[in-house]
Amino acid sequence: MTTILIKNARVLGGDPCDILIRDGVIAEVGAAAGKSGKAETIDATGLVALPGLVDLHTHLREPGREDAETVQTGTQAAARGGFTAVHAMANTSPVADTAGVVEQVWRLGQEYGHCDVQPVGAVTSGLEGRQLAELGAMADSAARVRVFSDDGKCVSDAVLMRRALEYVKAFDGVVAQHAQEPRLTEGAQVNEGEISGRLGLTGWPAVAEEAIIARDCLLAAHVGSRLHVCHVSTAGSVEIIRWAKSKGWDVTAEVTPHHLLLTDACVERSPVGPYNPIYKVNPPLRTNEDVLALREALADGTIDCVATDHAPHPVEDKETEWAAAAMGMIGLETALSVVQEAMVETGLLDWAGVADRMSYRPARIGRLSGHGSPLEAGAAANITLCDPSVRTAVDPAAMASKSRNTPYEGMTLPGRVVATLLRGRPTVLEGKLV
Amino acid sequence: MKRHLISAGDLTRDDALLVLDTAEELARVSERSIKKLPTLRGRTVVNLFYEDSTRTRISFEAAAKRLSADVINFSAKGSSVSKGESLKDTALTLEAMGADAVVIRHAASGAPHRLANWVRGSVVNAGDGTHEHPTQALLDAFSMRRRMGRVEGLKVAIVGDVLHSRVARSNVLLLHALGAEVTLVAPPTLLPVAVDTWPCQVSYDLDAVLPKSDVVMMLRVQLERMNAAYFPSAREYSRRYGLDRERFARLHDDAIVMHPGPMNRGMEISAEVADSPRSTIVEQVANGVTVRMAVLYLLLSGSEPAIGGDL
C-alpha cells in the first residue's frame, strides 16, 4: 500500500492543510499528519493545491509529425504544466478517424504514463468534410472517444454538421467545432482590422467565426445535441454563446491562454520586429477589446474552460516569412501561469474558479471519468501543486515539449508548477519530471 | 542604428526631404554624358527578386551601377530558391558573400523585415506583397516636387485597388509625412476595413474628388480581382473608377496624372490620358533610378546610414 502525505497545501488557495493519499485515492484532507504512518511526504508549504488540470485541446502530433512532438514529449510537457489529462486532437497523419488510430494514441499515453491521453476522434473521414468518420466505432473502442472534432478545419457543411450533432447523441458525445467559415478566410493571415490593413496581410474577420458559432448553436438546439466551441476568440462570439446559454441550449466553449493575454499588436511590434511568425495562430490573435471580453466571459462562466490548443511546430516552420509559416503556438507548460496572470492577478477568478475552468468543467465536457473531481476523500488523487508567489522569465530551451514555438519567450509570468500527481503517483516533483 | 529602408514609415520628414534633395543633386549626374560616380566602389548590392519585376530590378541595378557598386542579381527562378531553399538560408548565403545591401522584392508581406533579422547589411524593400514599396513612394514624391515645385499642401488622389496596393500604403505614409493631403478613392471592396485610421481621406466617388486634386495617381487593377467579386466587370470598374478623357477634362489645368506602372490601358487609364503631356509616367521611370541612387547612397556611403529605420 503506497501512502503519500502532502503537507501544508492550500487547497484551492484556502488555509494550509494536509492531503493524505492511499493507493492513488485521496484518503483524507485536513490535519492528517498524525495518521499517515510511514508515508512519503511532499512539503507543500506556500503551495496551492488544485485538482489535476485537464486540457480539452492538445496537438500531440503523433502519428505523423514526430519531428514536432510525440505522445511522450507532449505528455511530459503536459505534466510539467500541471495537467493530468489531455485530449489529443485528431489532425494527425493518418487522421484519428478510425478506432485503430485512436486506440494507438490512447495506448501510447498509457505506456508513457506522464498523463492520461484521451483521443479526440475526427468528425469526418480524413478531415475532408465530406463523409462522417466511424464515430460509433471510436466511441466503442478502448479509447472511449466522446469528443469529436475536425479541428484545424471547420465542419462547414451545414448538413454534415447537423448529422454529426445528431449522431453523437447515441453515445453522449459532443462535437467540438473549429468555427471558421472557409470562404471568408481564404488565405487569411491575421485578425482583420487596423493591423491587417497596415501590414498588408489578408484579414481573418471576426464574422467568419461568429457566423459559424451562431449557426451551430441553432443546429444544436434544433437536434437537441451537445455543441462545444473550440478556441473562442472574439467579443462577438462571446455574445452569441451567452445568448445560446440563456436559451438553455447545451453549448459549451473554451478559450486559449494566448487569446486571454496577447493581441494582434504583437504582429506589428515584437523584439525582433514586425511579422514574427511566432505570433501566427489560428484563430488569430485579436484586439484588446476581444481579450477583455474573453476574460470576462471566462470569469462569468459563459466560456466554460481554458484549453491550450498546444500546437507544436519545428523551428524551420516558424523561421520563415509570415505567410509561409505554420499556424500555432505551444501552451501546455505556460497555461496555468498565463491564466494566473490574466485571470487571478486581475481579480477575475480565484483559485476555486481556476480549478473549475481548468479541471472540473473540461473533464465534464469530455465525459472524462476519474478526472476533474474536487480534492476530497474518495477522489482519484490527481493533484497539481503550484507556487503562485514566484515570477519567472519564460525560457523555451527549458521546456519539455519537443518544439520551441512559445510566444511568451522572455516574458515574465507568475506561478510555477512544483508537483503533479497522477492517481497518487508523482509525474513532476520540484518542477522536474519524475 | 538605422540601416534599412523597409517602410516609408521609417522615414521622418527630414529623412524624406534629405532623400529628395540628394536625388535632386544626383539627377544632375544623370544628365551628364558620363553618368557614373565612384561613391560606392567596392560595395556589393544584391538584387534579391522573388517576383518578376524587370522594371524595378533594372532601376535598382542602374542606380547601384551609377554609384560604381558591384551588383549581383539573384532571381528566385531557376536558383536554389526554386529547389526549396528558405529565405533564411538564402539570407545567410548572401551574408557570407559580404552583401552590403540587399534589395528585396517578395510576394510575402513582411519578407524584408524577416530578412533584416538574418543579414548584417542594409535591407531595401523593393516591394513586399501587399504591404509597401517605399522607393516607389519616394520617386512619386520626387516626381511631384519636380513638376509642381512642392509636395507640402498638394492634394493627391490615389485611385484604385488600395487593399492590395503596396504603392498606396507607402505613398499614404510618405506624403502624409511631407505634408500633402491624400484622398484614397476606390470601391468599398478595395479598401482595407480600418482605412479610416489611416492619415488620409477616403472617398468612393472619383468624380467628386477630381476637381479638387492637384495630383491623380492611378493604381494598377488586376483583372483576377474580378473573379474574387471585388467588382463586377472590367467595364464597370472602368466606368466608375477609370481615368478617361471626360474625367481628365474635369481636372484643373495644372493637375498631373501619375501611374506606377505597368498600366492597363483602357482599364484604369485611357491611352490619351497616359500619353498626355500632363502625365508623368515616363518621368517616373527616370526619376526611379535617381531616387534609388539617393537611397543607396544615403544608406551605404557614410560610416553611419543617413536615413532609414531599424526593426
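Residues 27 and 99 of chain A are 36 Å apart (CA to CA).
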